[in-house]
């Protein structure tokens, strides 16, 4: 396409081969016989002020050839006024001719939404030959809005979409035609229908808090605040690399950040690389955070205002923290006295589990109990509070899963099975603990995998008696599973939902005294990988979320290959029946797959790796934060979130 702009409307009859033409040397390429597709074709814009020479057939011009564009004084405006002077300029064609046939999208530059912010998006694509375009977009599965340019023919297009609504799903469809379509030839190419999501306005540690866009924030941990209905969020920060710091933020039940904007450093001793071990609610609105530095495990406690409670003499972000052990992994903590200042810690030490109780009433704190080993041949310790200032320790030992309730002096509580250990299973071997939660009545519910491919849930009550048979309830998983999570229902707990990854699918089941429902939440009909499921239990508005890369590959749900990147997808279900919400379908238009495979809760074109997200219920479990590692071009990874229960597809 050759285009020239005039400062006023032009008489189209004067745009003929004598006044507006191409030539190569002495040869003039005609412009007055468009019906045969053997010449150039002259058009004017609707305002009659832009003249264009279209090249409908690819063989009209020769590769690697210089051409002159000539405009003579014979061109006039609508009043007959001629140009003051003629004008000539030149261009050289490339060494590679345009391909024949209809246009197609370049594999290296497919239709891409980038970057997506909370109110705007830029849509970019490349084609194998110059095209015009009609771009339609809209909310839900609608494409009611239109952006178009039918007069300019380009190989690369960038189109802004603005304004958009924050945190919403949009659908896009693109049609493009080459020059040949001017003559009614087959030149139409469609991208198919696909979706993207705008981000929300909510940010924990993102573009506004990381100076210059340096550093990465990630490895997220989240913890519900039981005493005040809020939620803690913690993440790593390598802005001071090679150091790795641990930072945090507390949200109340609105949710509004309660600590300094962007969070506060918690473990930030200079020259130290920290990693997470465990976070425990301290029962008074604050948190106990365990971190490892090398082989040691350290603890700090913060109150609800984000101020350090002194356990070291003078505790700050720059001090190491209270050293719990010089070596060990998988550390856990829980307060074990009414004053909440006596804390039981357990950790893996080689083949055994060690334990210590620190009394933090005075400064410095003192050890009230220590045992190494505390459990000989104990593995994979889980530690939860029982609600009455004791800790419940669940672990594997040899061929079984055991439990014991421990008081503030390190002894088994006498009312717990007569002061003895409780075997929770009877299987011969190969048991792996996956999740442990309170039974809401002084006991615990344990989700475990047996022999690599069977899921069970077992409950032990507040006095140490198993409630669901010698091995618990079989969840009926149909194949080998991984990444399992659990939600509990009832006071005391009577039923559980387990969600798992099976292959590249997401599966869930609910069991009580008998199986209630089971089925796939999302499957490979989408294409790609579905993994790392999480569940937000909320009755008829229960939401199951997972990481999903369906838009990084050719997807049967959308019919076109593009690179929107990894996303977080979700499905709303009725927790009682397992029935899925039709509004959360992958594609509700009848085009492609319409098989209840979930919708995008978060999509980001730059998300080249899985978002490693967490779900943090707050406000008594009635609401939840969805928090993820967000990757933006030139910004590193940031920690972003949305209010999950307010999301609507």
Walkthrough of the structure:
By secondary structure, this protein is mainly β. Among the domains are: 2-92, Immunoglobulin-like; 112-197, Immunoglobulins (Immunoglobulin-like, Sandwich). Helix content is 0%, strand content 47%. The strands form eleven sheets. Strands 8, 9, 10, 11 and 12 form a five-stranded antiparallel beta sheet that branches. Strands 18, 19, 20, 21 and 22 form a five-stranded antiparallel beta sheet that branches. Strands 3-2-6-7 form a four-stranded antiparallel beta sheet, with no helix packed on it. The chain starts with a strand and ends in a 6-residue tail after the last strand. Residues 33-39, 182-188, 201-213, 553-563 and 587-595 have low confidence and may be disordered.
Which second-level CATH architecture of the domain at 2-92 applies? Sandwich
- The CATH topology of the domain at 2-92 is given as Immunoglobulin-like
What's the CATH class of the domain at 2-92, please?
Answer: Mainly Beta
Largest sheet: 5 strands, antiparallel
Beta content comes to: over 45%
Individual helix count: 0
**Rg calculated over all Cα atoms:** 32 Å
List the quaternary state of the chains. Answer: single chain
Portion of residues in helices?
A: under 10%
Poorly predicted runs of 5 or more residues:
33-39, 182-188, 201-213, 553-563, 587-595
Based on secondary structure, the structural category is: mainly beta
Number of strands: 45
Q: Alpha-carbon distance between the termini?
A: 41 Å
C-alpha geometry: elongated
């Amino acid at each position: 396409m050759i285009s020239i702009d005039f400062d006023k409307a032009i008489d189209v009859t004067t745009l003929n081969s004598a006044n507006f033409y191409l030539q190569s040397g002495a040869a003039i390429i005609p412009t007055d016989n468009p019906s045969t597709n053997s010449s150039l074709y002259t058009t004017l814009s609707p305002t009659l002020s832009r003249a264009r020479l279209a090249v409908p057939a690819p063989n009209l011009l020769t590769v690697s050839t210089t051409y002159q564009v000539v405009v003579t004084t014979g061109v006039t405006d609508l009043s007959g006024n001629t140009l003051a002077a003629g004008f000539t300029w030149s261009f050289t064609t490339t060494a590679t001719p345009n391909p024949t046939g209809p246009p197609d999208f370049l594999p290296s530059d497919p239709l891409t939404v980038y970057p997506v912010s909370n109110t705007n998006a830029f849509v970019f694509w490349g084609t194998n030959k110059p095209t015009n375009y009609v771009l339609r977009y809209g909310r839900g599965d609608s494409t009611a809005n239109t952006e178009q340019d039918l007069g300019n023919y380009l190989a690369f297009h960038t189109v802004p979409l603005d304004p958009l609504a924050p945190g919403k799903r949009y659908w896009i469809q693109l049609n493009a035609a080459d020059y040949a379509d001017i003559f009614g030839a087959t030149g139409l190419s469609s991208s198919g229908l696909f979706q993207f999501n705008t981000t929300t306005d909510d940010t924990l540690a993102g573009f506004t808090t990381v100076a210059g866009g340096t550093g990465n924030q990630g490895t997220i941990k989240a913890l519900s605040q039981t005493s005040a209905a809020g939620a803690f969020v913690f993440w790593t920060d390598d802005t001071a690399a090679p150091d790795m710091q641990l930072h945090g933020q507390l949200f109340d039940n609105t949710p509004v950040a309660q600590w300094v904007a962007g969070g506060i450093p918690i473990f930030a001793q200079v020259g130290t690389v920290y990693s997470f071990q465990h976070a425990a609610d301290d029962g008074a609105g604050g948190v106990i955070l365990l971190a490892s530095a090398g082989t040691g495990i350290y603890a700090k406690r913060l109150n609800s205002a984000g101020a350090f409670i002194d356990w070291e003499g003078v505790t700050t972000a720059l001090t190491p923290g209270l050293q719990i052990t010089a070596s060990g992994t998988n550390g856990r903590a829980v307060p074990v006295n009414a004053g909440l200042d006596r804390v039981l810690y357990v950790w893996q030490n080689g083949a055994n589990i060690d334990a210590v109780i620190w009394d933090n009433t005075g400064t410095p704190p003192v050890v009230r109990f220590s045992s190494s080993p505390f459990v000989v041949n104990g593995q994979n310790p889980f530690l939860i509070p029982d609600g009455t200032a004791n800790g419940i320790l669940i672990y594997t030992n040899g061929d079984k899963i055991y439990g014991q309730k421990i008081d503030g002096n390190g002894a088994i509580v006498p009312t717990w099975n007569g002061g003895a250990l409780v075997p929770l299973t009877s299987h011969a071997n190969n048991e792996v603990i996956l999740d442990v939660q309170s039974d809401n009545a002084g006991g615990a519910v344990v989700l475990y995998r047996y022999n690599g491919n069977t899921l069970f849930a077992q409950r032990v009550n507040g006095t140490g008696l198993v409630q669901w048979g010698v091995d618990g309830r079989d969840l009926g998983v149909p194949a080998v599973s991984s990444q399992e999570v659990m939600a509990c229902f009832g006071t005391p707990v009577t039923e559980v939902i387990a969600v798992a990854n099976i292959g590249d699918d997401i599966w869930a089941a609910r069991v009580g005294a008998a199986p209630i429902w089971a089925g796939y939440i999302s499957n490979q009909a989408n294409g790609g990988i579905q993994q790392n499921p999480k569940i937000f239990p909320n009755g008829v508005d229960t939401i199951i979320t997972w990481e999903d890369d369906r838009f990084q590959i050719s997807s049967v749900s959308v019919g076109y290959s593009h690179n929107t990147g990894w996303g977080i997808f979700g499905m709303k279900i009725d927790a009682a029946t397992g029935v899925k919400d039709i509004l959360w379908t992958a594609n509700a238009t009848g085009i492609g797959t319409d098989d209840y495979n979930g919708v995008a809760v978060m999509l980001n074109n730059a998300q080249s790796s899985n978002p490693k997200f967490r779900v943090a219920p707050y406000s008594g479990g009635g609401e939840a934060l969805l928090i993820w590692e967000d990757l933006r071009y030139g910004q590193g990874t940031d920690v972003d979130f949305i209010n999950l229960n307010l999301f609507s597809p």
